[in-house]
Amino acid sequence: QGSGQVWLSDLTCAGSEQHLGQCPGPTWGDNTCGHGEDAGVVCAGESWTGRSEPFQVRLVDGPHRCAGRVEVSHLGRWGTVCDDTWDLSAARVTCRHLGCGPALSAPGRSRFGPGRGPVWLDQVRCSGEELTLDRCERPGWGEHDCDHAEDAGVVCAGEDRCAQVRVGDGGEGTGEG
Fold it and tell me: Which Cys-Cys disulfides exist here (predicted)?
């Protein structure tokens, strides 16, 4: 059981929403639920790519958490994204993934300074509707023709506090929690 305010109740999600805040339902905090009715979720544990690790992205060396050089983790190591074909659609996917609101720009040419380590992604082509960058069209991990002078960046509007969801206290694979 959780503690504190129960924020959502009686949601009727279609499954195409980007976050729970888009699901029809009563006003936030307007419910008669107690923590004995807390909802949970059990995820399959593997992404569509067959990797058991979740896709991780972060923005670094920017003025705040929602702006900076795009870095992704692969095989436990952080690396950068090349700015070839990098555009506002890819920035939109990144901002949504991070809960940072709408994308404002997709600067290239290492606007937030050159990264270090591998260049993990290049030629990323997103429609803007993907859940994560690894679902966008692209060559394989580490396949690139650029260096850190071409690292991609993102500037998002800021934190979208209404879209943040936390999953906690779940027993792995037990279906309980």
Answer: 13-23, 82-146, 95-156, 126-136
